[in-house]
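Our preliminary data section would be incomplete without showing what the modeling component actually yields. Below, a chain of 246 amino acids is followed by its predicted structure, encoded as C-alpha cells that our downstream tools consume directly.
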Amino acid sequence: MTSSELWSRENAERYDAEEEENSSPEVLGPVLDFLAALAGGGRALEFAIGTGRVGVPLSERGVPVAGVEYSPHMAEVLRRKVGEETLPVVLGDMATATVPGEFAVVYLVYNTISNLLTQDEQVECFRNAARHLAPGGRFVIELGVPPLRFLPPGQVAVPFDVSERHLGFDTFHLAEQVLVSHHLTQDGAEGRYRRDHSRHRYAWPAELDLMARIAGLALERRVADWDGSPFTDDSGKHVSVWRKPA
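Predicted structure:
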C-alpha cells in the first residue's frame, strides 16, 4: 500500500482543463527540451504520468516513453490521447511498480514525489528509479523548495496563488514535515467556488541528495527551472538530476 492519495474520476476529468496554462508550448517547451536531451535517443520513464501532460508530447518528439500511474482514472484520460502500443502505462505506485526494460531517464515532474507521505516511501521511489535506469542513466525531479521562511512565529499558512478564479494556500505541519495544499476554484458561471485539498511531504534538496545516495545515485546538476537558470537562495523550486554510475 502507498500513502499517496488516489485521484478520483472527477479530478481526472477536469485535470487537463485546470492545467491548460501549464500545458502550453511556452511552459512545456523547456521541459521537453531538457528531458529529450537527457534521453539522448534512449527510453524515458515517467513516474506518476497522470493524463500525459508531459509524457504524450515527449513521445510525439520521438522519445520512447513509458509511464507508471497510481490512479486508473488519470490513466484512462491519458489512454484517450494515445494507445498502449505507443505509450505503455503500468498501473501502480511509483515506489514499487516495475516497467520492463531499462531507461536512459526516469523523471518526476510538478512536485509529485511529495505525494508520497513518508520518508521511507520517498527513499523507495529513488531506489525504484535506480532499478529502472541503464548504467549512466539519470533520475530527474522537479520540486518546490519549502517556503518555511515565509512563516513567522504563530503562522501556519502560506498563499501560493491569488488569482481571479483560484485561491491557493498551503498549511504546514512542521513536526510531521507535511503540508496541505488548499484550493478554492471558481467552478462554473454562477461564481461558486469548489474547495479541494491534498497532503504532501515536503523535502529539502539536501534530503533528496541523501535519498539518491542511498539508491546509489549521485547529484549531477541542480537548476532553478527547466530553462537551466541557476539555483540560488531565492529559488522557489529546483530541477535536480542524479546519475547512475556507468
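Residues 106 and 139 are 5 Å apart (CA to CA). DSSP finds six helices and eleven strands in the chain. Preliminary results of this kind motivate Aim 1 of the renewal.
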